[in-house]
Specification:
By secondary structure, this protein is of the alpha/beta class. The protein starts with 25 loop residues before the first strand and ends in a 27-residue tail after the last strand. Helices cover 18% and strands 25% of the residues.
C-alpha cells in the first residue's frame, strides 16, 4: 500500500457494500398497507410517517435493500426504486406519461443505448426519465419545450433519478427549426403535433421513428393525415389499458378500479428520398467472340430445352409416326 493511501489515525474508512443503501441513494419505503414514500438518503434526516414515530434515515446507511423495519403501528420495507416508481413519484406540474405507455413507446420506436432521441413537450419529465434510462450510457435525449419555467421541475426529477448527464433541455417555439439533426427517434406530447411534422421530418434520420401522444381521437386523426401527406409510412395508432388482478387463493379477481385511457399513441416511420427502380431492364452482358475480335451478346436461354442430339422436326402431329 502506498504511503499516500494509508488512512490517518482515527480516520474512518467507508466503502459501500454492493446491494446496500448509501448516502445519496433513493429509497422506496413500502408499508404493509401499500402506502409508499420516496426518500432521499441524507444524514440527519427524519421522515414523518402515517403509522408511528418518524423514521431516522441515517440509520439506513449501510443496510441492505429489502430490509424490514417494524414501526409502532405496522411495518415497512426499504426497497430500491424502479423506473416505474420514479415516474409515478415524479413531482408534477402537468400530466405525466404512464409507465405502460412509455414501455411500448420505447420498444416500438427502437430506442436503445446509443440512440439520439428528440422529445417535444418536456412536461414534468416522466417520459424524459424513461427515455434517458433507455439511451444510457452512450446515447442522449434532447428535450424541447416552449415554456421556460416548466422544465425546471422536470430537471429536478431527472437529477433526482441520476440521469441528468443524458438529457439536454432546450427552449423553442412551435415550428422553429432544430439545431440538432440526425435523430433516431422523436416523441411529441403537444396539443397540435401536426404543426411540427415538417421540421421534425428534416431532423429525423431516414428510417427514423416518430411517436405522437394525444388524448383525443380528433388529434390522432389529424396527425395521421399530416404524416401521410409528408410521406411517412407504417402509420398506426395504439392504446393500452392496464388492469390489475388480485391474485388470492380461492378469490382471484380483477380490481374494481383500473388505469384506463391515458394517451393514444400514433407511430410512424420516415422514409428515405433514395429510390431504386427494379423495373428497369438490366443490360445484356457480352462475352468475347471465338475470333476474339468482336464481342457477342449472351442471349437468354429458351424456356423449352431440347434433348441433346435431337432435331426439331416440327410439331409432333406433323412428324412421321413410327411403323407398327
Amino acid at each position: 500500500m502506498k504511503e499516500d493511501s494509508v488512512p490517518a489515525m482515527n480516520e474512518t474508512i467507508t466503502q459501500q457494500i454492493p446491494g446496500t443503501i448509501a448516502e445519496g441513494d433513493l429509497v422506496l419505503v413500502w408499508f404493509d398497507d401499500e402506502r409508499t414514500y420516496m426518500i432521499d438518503v441524507t444524514r440527519g434526516k427524519r421522515v414523518a410517517i402515517h403509522c408511528g414515530k418518524p423514521l431516522v434515515v441515517e440509520d439506513w446507511i449501510g443496510q441492505p435493500f429489502g430490509k424490514k423495519i417494524i414501526c409502532q403501528h405496522g411495518f415497512c420495507y426499504l426497497l430500491k426504486p424502479t423506473m416505474e416508481d420514479l415516474m409515478m413519484k415524479a413531482s408534477r406540474e402537468s400530466g405525466i406519461i404512464y409507465p405502460k405507455d412509455a414501455a411500448l413507446l420505447i420498444m416500438k420506436a427502437g430506442i436503445h443505448s446509443g440512440s439520439k432521441v428528440m422529445e417535444i413537450g418536456t412536461g414534468s419529465g416522466s417520459l424524459t426519465m424513461a427515455l434517458a434510462q433507455a439511451v444510457a450510457p452512450n446515447g442522449h435525449v434532447f428535450s424541447y419545450d416552449r415554456r421556460e419555467d416548466l422544465p425546471k421541475n422536470a430537471y429536478k426529477n431527472i437529477d433526482r433519478a441520476g440521469l441528468s448527464k443524458y438529457v439536454t433541455f432546450c427552449q423553442r417555439q412551435a415550428m422553429d427549426p432544430f439545431t440538432e439533426k440526425d435523430f433516431d427517434a422523436v416523441t411529441l406530447d403537444i396539443p397540435q403535433p401536426w404543426e411540427e411534422v415538417t421540421v421534425v421530418k428534416q431532423a429525423l434520420k431516414p428510417g427514423g421513428r416518430l411517436v405522437s401522444l394525444n388524448p383525443t381521437f380528433n388529434q390522432i386523426e389529424k396527425m395521421a393525415e399530416a404524416l401521410r401527406e409528408q410521406g411517412f409510412i407504417l402509420v398506426e395508432a395504439r392504446e393500452l389499458l392496464e388492469r390489475e388482478i388480485l391474485a388470492r387463493a380461492g378469490k382471484t379477481r380483477p380490481v374494481q378500479r383500473m388505469i384506463g385511457h391515458t394517451e393514444f399513441m400514433l407511430f410512424a416511420v420516415k422514409t428515405s428520398e433514395v429510390t431504386t427502380d427494379l423495373r428497369q431492364s438490366a443490360p445484356i452482358p457480352v462475352l468475347p467472340n471465338v475470333s476474339g475480335d468482336e464481342t457477342a451478346p449472351v442471349l437468354p436461354v429458351s424456356d423449352e430445352k431440347k434433348t441433346e442430339g435431337s432435331k426439331d422436326n416440327g410439331p409432333v402431329s406433323e412428324r412421321q409416326s413410327p411403323q407398327a
